[in-house]
């Protein structure tokens, strides 16, 4: 038997194995790029530990923050003035990726709200932030004696302690909303008398003189 015939049986299995794997294409290169990008994405985190965390008023404006004393905040609520009225701004200080969008679920005290949040630039990285009209019914989830849960993708569930200052902030923002939308009852500008009214006044004055 010639050497070629001896190698032929070995070549057939090798050919079959190779034929099982499709050739490399652009789609495989694209998958590699996606995998490389995915490896750089921020990894999901567990639900934050909120032991000893409290609500506190922030130094600037109508804003309160939730977190452990002496540590970076975990969550924040603020009253904002917008072109369409007052709004409650929600900030979940969970790192996220630039350009990311999601829904934050707010659950508590018999209410469930789901609101749009976007990756918002901060001093370091990006955090989840969004705005809700101050008169949104499901903001009632923050009121009451029970804990409120705030959940975002990849950030776990953050349990927010009940505190009266949360309701007070929402109340104040809602009052501002009412004041902004109420029609003006009168005008400070003095009303110019009409010609007929002036003539009637002069006639009455002349009658009294006579």
Automatic annotation (TrEMBL):
Region of interest called Disordered, as start-end residue ranges on this chain: 175-210
Composition bias type Low complexity, residue spans: 196-210
Top-level taxon in the UniProt lineage: Bacteria
Name under which the protein is recorded: Lipoprotein
Species: Qipengyuania atrilutea
């Amino acid at each position: 038997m010639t050497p070629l015939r001896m190698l032929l049986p070995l070549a057939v299995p090798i050919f079959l194995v190779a034929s099982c794997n499709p050739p490399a294409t652009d789609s495989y290169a694209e998958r590699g790029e996606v995998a490389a990008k995915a490896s750089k994405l921020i990894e999901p985190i567990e639900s934050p530990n909120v032991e000893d965390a409290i609500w506190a008023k922030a130094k600037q404006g109508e804003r309160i923050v939730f977190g452990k004393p002496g540590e970076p905040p975990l969550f924040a609520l603020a009253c904002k003035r917008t072109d369409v009225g007052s709004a409650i701004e929600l900030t979940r200080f969970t790192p996220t990726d630039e350009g990311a969008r999601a829904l934050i679920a707010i659950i508590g005290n018999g209410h469930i709200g789901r609101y749009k949040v976007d990756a918002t630039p901060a001093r370091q990285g990006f955090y989840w932030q969004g705005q809700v009209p101050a008169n949104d019914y499901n903001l009632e989830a923050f009121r009451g004696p029970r804990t409120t849960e705030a959940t975002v993708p990849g950030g776990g569930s953050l349990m927010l302690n009940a505190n009266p200052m949360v309701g007070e902030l929402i109340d104040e923002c809602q009052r501002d909303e009412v004041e902004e939308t109420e029609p003006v009852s009168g005008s400070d500008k003095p009303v110019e008398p009409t010609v007929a009214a002036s003539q009637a006044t002069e006639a009455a004055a002349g009658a009294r003189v006579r």
